[in-house]
Hints:
The structure holds 2 protein chains of 2 kinds.
Chain A lengths: L4 E10 L13 E6 L5 E15 L4 E5 L6 H8 L7 E6 L2 E2 L4 H7 E4 L11 H11 L4 H14 L15 H13 L5 E5 L7 H16 L3 E6 L2 H7 L2 E6 L2 E6 L1 H6 L5 E8 L5 H7 L3 E7 L2 E6 L6 H10 L3 E8 L3 H9 L6
Parallel strand pairs in A: 4-9, 4-10, 7-8, 8-9
Antiparallel strand pairs in A: 1-3, 1-5, 2-3, 5-6, 10-11, 12-14, 12-15, 13-14
Helix pairs in contact in A: 3-4, 3-5
Chain B lengths: L2 H17 L1 H25 L7 H30 L6 H4 L5 H31 L9 H23 L7 H14 L14 H6 L4 H13 L8 H27 L2
Amino acid sequence: MGVGVRAQELRKVYSSPPPMAAGSAGFSFTAVRGPKGKQKTEIVALDGLSLDVRAGEVFGLLGPNGAGKTTTVGILTTRVKPTNGSAWIGEYDVWREQVAAKRLIGVVQQRPNLDFSLTAREILEFHAAYFGIGRVERTRVAAELLERFQLTERADQMVRGFSGGMMQRLSIARAMMHDPKVLFLDEPSAGLDPQTRLLLWDIIREYNRAGKTILLTTHNMEEADALCHRIAIVDHGKLIALGSPADLKASIPGGYLLRLRFTGPADGLAGRLRELAGVSEVNVSGPSVDLYADRGGPLAPAIVTAASAAGAELCDVHISEPSLENLFLHHTGRSLRD
Amino acid sequence: MNWKTFRAMLARDAHVARRNFIPMVLQTMLQPMLFTFVFGQVMTRSGMMASSYKMILLPGIMAVSMVMTGIMGVAMPLIGEFQFTREIEDRLLAPIKIEWLAVEKVVAGMVQSLASGAVVVPAAWLVLGNVELSFANAWMFAVIVMLVALLSAAGGLTLGCSVGQTQVGLLFSLVLAPMIMFGCAYYPWSSLASYPILQKLVLVNPLVYASEGLRGTLVPDVPHISVAVVIAALAAMDVALVLLGLKQFRGKAMS
């Protein structure tokens, strides 16, 4: 039986800086005067976020740095106390029934937090021991996971000298040691080379096929697209859009985004472009025009014709296919990488 | 309460302690031995100090090394694990109430503190030679030793969860150094009689009770604060430091 995750109206206001992993970009800062007249800074990390992650799905939280992804994961994994709102892992209230909730989850933090006083194998075995797994079983599972994550050769070395990628793999192996029903991965592939990233994706898919629920955060659209059944796009602590990658992409007007640049006078150009067949939205800013349409390349000749009719000349075209990046741009007016 | 998890956390700390055995023994032993040698041997043999000073010194050395070992054994790893490496997170996610992790750290610190007492006393006794220790009050002695061990570990928990990595230097110069110097470890409390204000002020220092309590039970002929007062004060400070330490720990563990 899979276990789902639910969050209702989560709000988190930090009065001191948020956890290191949460980054700082994108938070809204409000200066507030405390009771003693001392100035303190309040940071709204989450602003009424609700989520319903179904049992057995791979769910992605997609958003730029500082969107509130890490804080959400922190609350769902008992590490951050929400200012308002509630969260559940399965039937357990995360804040009131912490121990029961912790039994069901495995967590990979954004920053490696391995036990530097232990070797890789000991890290896995002690982790299993914390979860009450017997010696024989934990030795076996640790050996299996070390092999699966290609760490067997370095298994008996202290992790201090490990590369970032190795630490990340070991963190994920550790989170899987007690076979949790829900796996949280905060930016799992940040800093991994492409080969390791593919290995990780395989492992995530395989773990999900075994009926486990996976919640991952990422600002990589390709990753969200490749892995997730459903995606929630968050920005400034709020939910912006929710759905399957295909549905979300289909929700962008037209789907294709053509970013055009013109030279020369462009009076009436926007009007002409709007009239072209298949064009659903035209946004003009100076010489640049963002055009959403239901096709890409085939529209180019018609655009050139419309431009010359308006006395302008098309000098640059960039066509992007329906993507989550475009979706994010459409909803926020900003690129995910900004 | 989940004993399996608690035991596994203790096993982890024991494993790490075994791995760092030699540096740990040096850290525990070296400073008290140097003190014992210089003050107990060099100063008394040269006649600069009376030979009876050895009796005052030995319980004090035991108190200082127990208190410092417990504080350092809990505070230093906690400061590191919470700040830079965040390696404590894995144990915070273990299926047990997080307060038990703090309790586990205190138990581990008590064991270290007791071990340092058990090692330093015979070693100092050998270096000093000729000190007559009384074990007539064995029970009282045992109670005081346990209270001192708890005091040091709970103090370590409180300090370790209150001090940032960048303030470790200040911890030494502003907290630990005055604590040792005004801890009545190298002189009995009664010898502060000519500084009446200071004599009252040092009573907030837990090390005073540790030194005086050990003196009162090991060398009862040396003037000392009454053992009953010492036990009451240590017990009160233990309770206060455990509660404060747990509060600070909770604040560190959750944001």
